[in-house]
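Q: Structure tokens for this one, please.
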Amino acid sequence: MSAGALAFGPFGAACSRLVTDGDSVPPVFKELAATLAERSNPGLSVFLGASEFIAGTTERIPMRLAAMDGADLIATTATVYVGKRKNPLPMTYQRFASDSTLGFHETHIPVPKEGGIIDLAVVAKARGTSSYGFAVIDGKVDGKVPSIGEQAIAVATSTDSNLCTRTPPCGMHAISLDAALGLGKPVVLIIGSPKLCSSGVCGPVVDEAIHIRNDKAAFLHVEPYVDDSATTLSQVPTAWGLDSEPWTFIIDANAKIAARFEGAVTAGTMDEALNKIV
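A: Here is the predicted structure, written as tokens:
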């Protein structure tokens, strides 16, 4: 076990860069910013809901967008410019099935094989006004978290439902992770603390898993801390190399990772990934 809290929660300021000063505009977007300023306002807050971006892949990135007054932008039209790419990529607004009042924006961004820093410019339209802001991601050649196609790491986890920080407990602690991986059936694994998660996303993600829970797979929720002090990590985040929460893994019957989602993810996305392997 490792001492210390997870480095940060997705949707936290630690994994985003907000720019409201023209002098701070990334050089790659100087011309774009000048164009945007003619028909938009600066000051869009862009909070990235993921932190591990693997070189040579197309990464799903959940985002929280907020107006200058701090109000979340809900179900708004948004696009994202990626580095030197001339045309923006689309973003979609994803609502949670378990609570349709909650949601997040999502996009898929190609990360170059060489990795490195990638600047993002996000443009959103809400209440008749267009605004823009900037963020940055860092593409890594080697990730810390198990990737798609790799073997899931077998770890003994607690089956004590009283340790679940969801109220009421989620009911997804009946079997240890190592035992579930030996069942010869798919596993849906959610790692995150509904009570202690700094992003506020862990609870909704656990609820999304409950929403689609069925007998086609073993559904497991694992708390990342050994107790409510949130100072000591449990064995799973340590063994799996996690620096953030929540993480959701769809694991096939051979105990190989078929899909992985960092941060916010909907029941529909989970179910779609699961249906590909059952």
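A few notes: The chain has a mean pLDDT of 90. The chain is about 15% helix and 30% strand.
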